[in-house]
Amino acid sequence: MAPHARLVEVFSSIQGESELVGYRQIFLRFFGCNLHCDYCDSPEAHRAAEGPAWCRVEHTPGSSDCDRLSNPLSPADVCDAVARLNTVPHHSVSLTGGEPLIHALFLEALLPELRGLGLPVYLETNGTLPESLERVLEWVDFIGMDVKLPSVAGTDAASLLPRHQAFLTVARRRRVFVKIVVGAETPASEVDEAARMVAAVDRAIPLTLQPVTPFGGVARAPAPAKLLELQALALRFLETVRVIPQTHKMLNVR
Ligand code: SF4
Question: What class is the 7-251 domain?
Answer without folding.
Answer: alpha beta
